[in-house]
Amino acid sequence: MKTTLEELQAFAAVVDGGSITAAADQLAQTVSGISRALSRLEKKLDTTLLRRTTRRIELTEEGQAFLQRTRAILASIDEAEESMAARRQQPSGRLRVNAATPFMLHAVVPLVPAFRSAYPGIQLELNTDEMNIDLLERRTDVAIRIGLLQDSTLHARPLCTSRLRVLASPDYLARAGKPRSVADLAGHTLLGFNQPESLNRWPLRGAHGDEWPTVPGLTASSGETLRQLALQGVGLVCLSDFMTAGDRESGRLVQVLARDTVDVRQPINAVYYRNTQLAARIACFLDFLQERLA
């Protein structure tokens, strides 16, 4: 017997969701229906794709190999459906977008209402990760990346640039004093990133040239966490304009050491795989973002 689309979708959904229950929710099916589809698939292939324990589900070596083929098949079906929609000039389908939490919250989310109004046939799925992800493994159509790109297998569409500034809350400055020179930072609480270390080199002129390596007294994995800490008066932080412009305009955060700050602008790009045909839903999303963020 031939493998069915339903069985492939069930298999991929179980892997993505980490459980049969999560897959059933994602596909709007019953748990028993998903379980039967998996059993049929393994019987047809005469192999075990998943190891099931009481705590989790793991892919076997055969399951890993079959998953790659499954994802390619499902992607081909998505592209075929999108091609038909494009013929009708009505972009439609699911669009999976990944970005760091701060950019998603401060740059993408405010644009969602207008995008949905312009393209009601596109179903957005917004996911956040603080580190770069594998687009194919995470079934992501578009990822938004901040900083210099390393992966040559990806197409990149420049969206905008965003300037870095050293900031603090008025409450913190009233309590700790305003630094008058870069050397004064030694007497302040500095907020920084767990990783990568390069994010803790601030764009300040000093003995080290146009970058000042800091030793944070408190670190976090997310820029949004650091922003909230700065707003609460915990310390000084170096963050990008896309997430702090509103705070500066309202006076909740104040730029410090402006005369010592180098004009460093982070490039922000939307990326997708080179071997991916630019589907209508992806193209219109990129055009929409670029027009409003540039």
From TrEMBL:
Keyword line: DNA-binding, Transcription, Transcription regulation
Q: Which GO terms describe its molecular function?
A: DNA-binding transcription factor activity; sequence-specific DNA binding
Q: Where is the HTH lysR-type domain?
A: 3-60
Q: Does the keyword Transcription regulation apply?
A: yes
InterPro entries per the UniProt record, alphabetical: LysR-type_TF_proteobact-type, LysR_HTH_N, LysR_subst-bd, WH-like_DNA-bd_sf, WH_DNA-bd_sf
Q: Which PANTHER family match?
A: HTH-TYPE TRANSCRIPTIONAL REGULATOR, TRANSCRIPTIONAL REGULATORY PROTEIN
Family per record: Belongs to the LysR transcriptional regulatory family.
Q: What is the protein's name according to its record?
A: DNA-binding transcriptional LysR family regulator
Source lineage: Bacteria, Pseudomonadati, Pseudomonadota, Betaproteobacteria, Burkholderiales
